[in-house]
C-alpha cells in the first residue's frame, strides 16, 4: 500500500456502518482542509452511492449524481468531512456544526456520521435511522493520482 498524499484526487470513499450498510462517495477533489473552509470539487465526477438489499450477494448499487442545484461538493475541515449539502435540517454535535443537511457527513474521528437528503445530489439517506445517524465500522479511502 502506498503512502497517502493529501493532494490525491479523485477519491473513492467506502464506509460500512455497524448495522451493515455499505455506502460512500466519489470525490473529484482531494480530501484536505482548505483555508478558509469552503466547498470544493466539481459535479462532473462527484457522486454518492449506496448498496441496497439485505444479503451481500443480492445487493444493488444506487448512485446519486449532481443535480446542478448547487456546488456543495466536498468540505473537509479538522472537525468534519461533508459531501453534498442543502436542505432543511442541521448537524450539530459537541465538536462541529454543518449548517444544512449533508448527503454524507463524518465527524473528525471518523466514528460517527449522518446522511440526509441534500440538494446537491437529491439522494436518499445512505444509512442510519430516521435522522440518518450512523456509527462507522470501517472506512476505506482510495486516492488516485491522475498525473
Automatic annotation (TrEMBL):
One of the Pfam families matching this protein, by short name: TLD
Protein family: Belongs to the OXR1 family.
Subcellular location: Mitochondrion
Swiss-Prot/TrEMBL GO biological process terms: response to oxidative stress
Domain TLDc: 1-145
Keyword Transmembrane annotated: no
Protein name: Oxidation resistance protein 1
Entry superkingdom: Eukaryota
A single Gene Ontology CC term: mitochondrion
Keywords from the UniProt entry: Mitochondrion
Entry-linked SMART domains: TLDc
Amino acid at each position: 500500500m502506498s503512502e497517502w498524499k493529501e493532494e490525491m484526487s479523485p477519491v473513492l470513499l467506502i464506509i460500512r456502518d455497524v448495522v451493515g450498510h455499505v455506502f460512500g462517495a466519489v470525490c473529484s477533489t482531494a480530501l484536505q482542509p482548505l483555508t478558509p473552509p469552503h466547498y470544493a470539487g466539481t459535479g462532473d465526477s462527484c457522486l454518492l452511492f449506496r448498496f441496497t438489499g439485505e444479503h451481500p450477494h443480492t445487493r444493488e448499487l444506487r448512485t446519486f449524481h449532481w443535480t446542478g442545484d448547487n456546488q456543495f461538493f466536498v468540505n473537509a475541515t479538522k472537525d468534519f468531512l461533508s459531501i453534498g449539502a442543502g436542505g432543511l435540517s442541521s448537524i450539530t454535535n459537541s465538536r462541529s456544526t454543518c449548517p444544512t443537511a449533508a448527503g454524507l457527513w463524518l465527524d473528525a474521528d471518523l466514528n460517527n456520521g449522518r446522511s440526509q437528503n441534500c440538494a446537491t445530489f437529491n439522494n436518499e439517506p445512505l444509512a442510519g435511522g430516521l435522522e440518518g445517524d450512523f456509527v462507522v465500522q470501517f472506512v476505506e479511502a482510495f486516492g488516485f493520482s491522475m498525473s
